[in-house]
Amino acid sequence: MAMRSFVFLLGVMLTSSLAFGAQDIQTPQNGQSVQRNQIPEPSDAEQGKPPENPPEPESHGTRLRWQDIPKNVLHDQFAIFTSPLHINRDNAKWWIIFGGSTAALIATTDQKVSDSMGQETRLTTPSRWASRVGSDYFLMPAWASFYLVGKASDSPRARDTARLGVEALIDADISVAILKFATQRPRPEVKGESVAFFKGGDAFPSGHSIKSWALARVVSREFPGPRIIPIVAYGLAATVSVARVGGRRHSPSDAVAGAAMGFFIGDFVYRHHHAPSERSKIAWLANHATLTMSSSRAGGVRISFGE
């Protein structure tokens, strides 16, 4: 029973990762509103050598800078924890799908898997090794490499991927710490022991899963092509999620909830704080902004971004 459940979860997670990777293209965000901002005159500093992250035509005006991250994280956390108050017709299906799946696993599967899975199986050791891909001591150096490569190759996109990834990791760490403290769920480390909530523990949701999926989403949005990049990113994230179950570190619902939350945290961070590449500026403007011209009181012409 436990082996069949584990294989089924593995199949679902890996199939989902392939589907996400195959279809994940950088689509225009037509649903977003764009604030009306007047285009500023270039300052004296801007007349010289441009900074590392020059202003670009996107909703936040500039590329994400390191000093922006603390302020952005506060904004992100408010949005994350108030998101249930903003359920609408467009996003309700995702709440139903992932919320319902997590609830079903909690009610019907988690305890059965813990009770029937052997304390040590042939999958235990490989699972524990594979899950290390989602650990901080692997993810942090990996994301530092994006920035170093971006600096060496003068690639703004790689540098932005590093910054967005760090922000997504911080958001994921804060969110998962709060939820673990609130839910107090034990880990299924000992066969037969209860995995009920509010019994003391830090299992729900899976931290490795939430961080892996958050970063996978950032990478797949920044690098939608070639398709192998999103497929590998989601595949690694799915492997981490399944490995946390196989290594008896988490119940299936812990891993699924972490994957769903991480995916949407990474997507949120990207949509709100990314900057378009040079090649996509014209396409971004065409999909996000309406240029309006109006006479100012001084008799000049003002160009502003309209919704």
* β-strand number: 2
Q: Helix/strand/pairing class, anyone?
A: mainly alpha
Q: Could you state the order of secondary-structure elements as H and E? A: HHHHHHHHHHHHEE
Shape: globular
Please list the strands of the largest sheet in the order they lie side by side.
Answer: 1-2
Number of domains: 2
Give the helix level as a range of percent.
Answer: 55-70%
- Please give the CATH class of the largest domain: Mainly Alpha
Mean pLDDT: 78
Strand content: under 5%
Give the biggest beta sheet. Answer: 2 strands, antiparallel
Q: Within the CATH hierarchy, at the fold level, what is the topology of the largest domain?
A: Vanadium-containing Chloroperoxidase, domain 1
> Nearest-angstrom radius of gyration?
22 Å
For the record, give the distance between the C-alpha atoms at the N and C termini, rounded to a whole number.
55 Å
Unreliable residue stretches? 14-47, 49-62, 303-307
Number of helices: 12
Molecular structure report:
With 307 residues, the protein is mainly alpha-helical. It folds into two domains: 2-24 and 52-275, Vanadium-containing Chloroperoxidase, domain 1, CATH 1.20.144; 279-307, no CATH class. The chain contains twelve helices and two strands. The chain has a two-stranded antiparallel sheet. A hairpin with a 5-residue loop joins β1 (290-295) and β2 (301-306). Residues 14-47, 49-62 and 303-307 have low confidence and may be disordered.
